[in-house]
Structures are given as C-alpha cells and as structure tokens.
Amino acid sequence: MLTQNLGYPRIGSQRQLKKACEQFWAGKIDLKELKEVARKIKEENWQTQLDAGIDLIPCNDFSFYDQVLDTSLMLGVIPQRYSPVLSQVKANSEIDLYFAMARGYQKDGLDITAMEMTKWLDTNYHYIVPEFTANQEFSIFHENIFGEYNSAKQQLGQKAKPVLVGPVSYLLLGKEKEAGFERVDLIKKLVPVYIEIINRLKQQGAEWIQLDEPCLALDLSKKEKEAFEFAYRSIANRVSGVKLLVATYFEALLDNTQLAVNLPVAALHLDLVRAPEQLDEVLALIPAHLKLSLGLVDGRNVWKNDYEKSLSLINKAVEKLGTERVIIAPSCSLLHSPIDLDLETAIDPEIKHWMAFAKQKLNEISELKQITEGNNDLLETNIKAIASRRSSQKVHKQAVKDRVAAITAADATRQSAFPVRQQLQRERFNLPSFPTTTIGSFPQTDDIRQLRAKLKKGDLTLEQYEKEIEQATIEAIRWQEEIGLDVLVHGEFERNDMVEYFGEQLDGFLFSKNGWVQSYGSRCVKPPVIYGDVSRPKDMTVRWSAFAAAQTDKPMKGMLTGPVTILQWSFVRDDQPRDVTTNQIALAIHDEVLALEAAGIGIVQIDEAAIREGLPLRKAKRPHYLDWAVNAFRITASGVQDQTQIHTHMCYSEFNDIIEHIAAMDADVITIETSRSQMELLQAFAHFEYPNEIGPGVYDIHSPRVPTTQEMASLLAKAADLLPAQHLWVNPDCGLKTRKWPETKAALENMVAAARQAREQISVEA
C-alpha cells in the first residue's frame, strides 16, 4: 500500500516566500536571491515529506505566485499585450513577464493591466485566469518543470512525482477572449504539448506523474466529457513507461464516475473527505488495472483525522482491490492548510490535541498505513482524542443553540421594500450622482503593523496604542475629505484581518501564531479556528466607527464582515452543519449592526466577499446553500431602520448563476470587482435588471499600477450603458490594505476625478 501527498504549502514556515517576493518587487533583492529563498523552501518541504515516510512526494507544486499562471507560462499562453514586456525583460529570464501577467506592469514607458484573477473552485485561493484566443498556439515556452524534477530527484530519488494542472481543467478554468469559439475545442492543439512534457519527464526518470483534473468533479457538457476522453486516450497512445495519476477533489465524481474510472491512466484520486459516499460507486465500476488513491486526510481544515472513519473506507477499498491497488493520501493539496502545529505554543492544549496542520497531516497518512499493518496503539490514541472533542464543554453552549433554534422568517426581513428605503436614504445623505467611496481598509503600513506588534509585546500601553490609531484615523479622514470622497471610511488601522479581527472578539474562536495559508501571490492569511458555539460578548467595532464619525460631517461607513465570509475564511467546525455555525455568526453580527445604528452610524457595510466562493461545485446542491447563506445575511441586516443604508461587498466572482440570490440579499448597495474583467461581470446584473444600487469596481487594487482618470471614466461609461446611472456608485475593486500610500492616493484622486467627469458627461435620470 503506497502513501502519497498531492501538494505542500509553498510559502515557508515563516512566510519566507512572501517576504522575498515583496523584496524582489521593491528592487531590494535580485533574482538570484529570490531563487535561493525558493530553493531552500522546496528542499525543506521535500525533506519534511521524506521524513514522514511518504512514498510519492510532489514536485513542481511550488510556485512564486500561482500554479495556473505557471502552466500558462510553461505553455506559452501569454496574452499579446505582454509582448513589449517580454522584449524588455529577457535579462531576468521570464520572471518579470511572469509577475507582469500576475500584477500588471507600469514602468519603462509601459502601462499594461494584469490578467484576471478568480477563486480556485470553492476555496479562498486565487488563480490567474488563462486567456485564450481562437487561433491559440501552445508550445513549451518555460522549462522550469524539468529543472524542478531534476532537483527533486536528487533529493528524493524515485519518490519525486511531478505535478501538472491537467490539460482539460486548464482549458476549462480559462476564458475565451474573443467570440466565435469554445476554449475546450483547443484540446487538440494542447494535448501534443502535454505529451511532449510527459515524455521528457519520463526520459528524466519520472515514474509517476500527477495530473490535477478538479473539473472532473464538476457538471460537464457532452463536449467537455469528450475532451477528457480524447486527451487521455491521445496521451496513452503516445506515452508509455510512466504511470499517470489523475487527481480530482472538492466534490464527488457523480455522473462523471464512468468517465473517470475508464480514463487510460494508472491511478485515480478521490476526495473522500468531501464525498465519502462516492467510494461505493467507484468500486463497483473500477476496472482491474486501476489503482485508487483515497483522499482521507482533510487538506482544507485543521482537525485531526478520525482514524476509525478512514479505516472503514480503507478496508472497503482493500477488500475489493487488495493492498497493492490502494494509495492513502490527503483529500487535496495541503496548500490550503497551515504548515506546522508544532510552532503553536499558545493554543489551549486541550483544543490543540484535536488539531493537525500540514506537517501533522503527513504523519496521519503514514499512521493510517501503519494501523492497517497492525499498529493498534496509534488507533487507540486517536480514538481518545476524537472522543474528548465530542464531549468537551468548551465546544457546546446551550444558550447559543437555543437562540439559533428560535430564528423565524421575521428575523430576516427589513421593515420596508428597497424603493421606500432608497428614497429615505437619499433624503438623509443627499449624495451626488455617482457617489464615491472605498471598500473599507487603507494601507497597513509598517508603522501601523509595528504599533500592533509593540502592543502585543507590552512595549506600548493600550492607551498609547489607541492614541496612535486615532491619529492615523484622523489623518485618513482629512485626506478623504480633501480629495472629495463622498462616503468615508475610518481605514481599519486597528484591524489585523477582516475575519481575524472579529474572531478575536467572538466566543468560540481561537487563533494561531503561525497558521498562515496563501490566498494569492504574496498575500497570506491566518484564518481563525471555529472550535465551538459562537456568540458576541461585547461591542466589536462601535468604539472606532463612532470615533471616526465624530471627526467629519460626511457620512461614515461602519465596517463589518458577514457571516458566510467569516465561515468561509475560517477553519470551521466539522462536527455540525455549516449552516448552523453560520446562523450563530449571523446573530452575533446582527447585534453589532444594531449597536452601530444606535451609535449614530447611518451606513453599515457587511462584507460578504466569499458568498460566491462557498457555492457548491455541483448545481444540484446550490439551492440549499444559497437559501441558508442569503438568509444568514438578511439576519445580520434585519432590525435596522429604513433610513439606515446597508452595503455589502463581494470579491472576485462570477455572478451569472446566482444573481437572483444576490438580489434576494436585499442590500441597499452592493460593491463588486469588475475592473480586470472590463465590466464584463455587470452583464449578469444588467440582464437580471438588478433593482438595487451597485458599485462596480473601477480600479484593480491587486496591482500596483495607477489607472488614469480616463481609464476609470471609460469603465463608468460602460457601466452606465448596462445599468441605470442613478443606481451607480464609484469605488475600487476591494479594500486597499495591501497597497502602498503613494499609489493609493494617486489612484483614488483619479477615481474621484472620474466620478466628477461622469457627472458632467453621463445623463442621470431623476
């Protein structure tokens, strides 16, 4: 029985990659130094997996930014607009081109936008979306994968297993950038390049190669299923002497089971954490040659594996297949997991005993194998840990459970319909057409971070810290007034993270010191852990929102994170349904909204950046999720007066298939990301005739480039062609926490100028 891992976190246990990339972008280190940091991380990762006894260890799972972008560079899928960059940056190989595609390029007389970014299936990891044209050509443009395998082979020998994004999923995860073709039709051009790559890896000595095909777990059209059959039949006809493993995850195969088990490959990986029920059907259909990789250890959460449950699945598979055809694995890449629980010294020991991070999950994989070989001591230890969590009084609070059980329809309903509220809000705030605002956060400078660090270390008193934060808030307000923003924010200088900040003040949450995971590029987040029933013991944001509002005559937004986003961006309980946990959080946020209103805050933004992210991958499962997710948001916003304006914000998402549910949230104003897509996302809102107000983002905050006034005015004109101009707000794509002040100020000044231009040039009906 083999063990394998599908992928390992690449940021480094101390976020070395984040720091090195940001230093490289700032010109503080050169490419050689950046690559040295990467080399050390990779070698440490490989050694950790080797020490854990993993039989098949992934390589080429490392990335400076994103594995899908790596694939685009490898295959030469480089949008035409980057040609000038390529001609100017050859001295740094292709790394400047690579980062330009991810982040945009605004120097050397060039001004080129970044590629679109969106969520990796239903995770909070973002990937760079491939752009395809009808005459798209593919070739091996960047040969990094071959060097990666050689390096891994030197350290790991035959345990080194190259990992590739599979050809069909790569196409399906991209976008057509012109009309008249379907990207899946490019499979006949793409497969020969994959064959060349696989054969070269085989010649280098690769025994196993992993092809990630997460789209096999999605709803597929007939043409898409035929693309899978064509791709893998073609590869099988041209490749021999190497074992291919196709990996699926995050959902069951369902109607794609027959297709998947009959692909001409050596092994198939299943996510049995998300969908343990699929094992029976797969075993009933599996052909005699196929090995089965059982994804048993949760790659997306922090809880210890329940060995008894995993062993029941292993035994079922072994009974049918024998031990030689069974591989034990995590459910997916451990990219989505924090790195090492051993680094955590402050977590409650009782709760820590229930947890496992990536390094510990490797040990769980090995221990499951050892138990099948007769090590019952490991099993008994695990059984005790699982039982202690189930019975702990730290987890269960009856008063919280009772309040959730008492929720009624009235708890999720505003007093009046939107048209009534809209009129009252316009009278209250008297805003101009195309009102300007930001999404909430302003740059978290080193000075601000150092203040927080000094407070934690005891080098500052709370009074000293708050005085400094007050000053930063006042300066941000004065600057917003100076440039003419209409609805202000306090900047969130007191907040570390939009979820962590709230979790620290809610009962039922705990926090790690080093539990970082990659969100995109150098952006890392440290998700809180929801271990028990959630409640709000005291006000969380009223002090800072009320202070900020007192400094200005302009409207000041109160800023909150919504219940679904807190759920999605936390490591959540796996011992009760997700909707129950979400309703507990919704009631806590509801109480905070009412407290802000009582303190005189007239506009409250409840960010639901992740509501689309949480959408089940299969359409049949979506209605149930959308019902409880939308209802949870409505619970947070109910109870306020009609003249209190409720905003929400949503990040990189496609809204076409859930637009009616977005409308059902009944937020007075929604702000969304649209700049990278050039307002394409507004098509869904226009077609639906979205009734409430909307702020389509007019500049990309994930890029350091500063868009011009004319560029943003042009986007506003596009938006006004699609939606009623009187319903439009003007704002960035997202919060500005990760940006620097000079670019932020320049961009927002241009944005305000674009709004003024729109007021002069675009007719707004009364």
From TrEMBL:
The residues covered by the Cobalamin-independent methionine synthase MetE C-terminal/archaeal domain are: 434-756
Name of a matching Pfam family? Meth_synt_1
List residues of the Cobalamin-independent methionine synthase MetE N-terminal domain. Answer: 3-320
Q: Which residues bind 5-methyltetrahydropteroyltri-L-glutamate?
A: K18, K119, N124, R523, C524, W569, E613
Q: Which UniProt keywords apply?
A: Amino-acid biosynthesis, Coiled coil, Metal-binding, Methionine biosynthesis, Methyltransferase, Repeat, Transferase, Zinc
Kindly list the positions annotated as binding L-methionine: I439, G440, S441, E492, D607
Q: Which residues bind Zn(2+) 1?
A: H649, C651, E673, C734
Biological pathway: Amino-acid biosynthesis; L-methionine biosynthesis via de novo pathway; L-methionine from L-homocysteine (MetE route): step 1/1
Task: Show the active-site residues.
Answer: H702
Q: Could you tell me what this protein is called?
A: 5-methyltetrahydropteroyltriglutamate--homocysteine methyltransferase
InterPro entries assigned: Cbl-indep_Met_Synth_N (IPR013215), Cobalamin-indep_Met_synthase (IPR006276), Met_Synth_C/arc (IPR002629), UROD/MetE-like_sf (IPR038071)
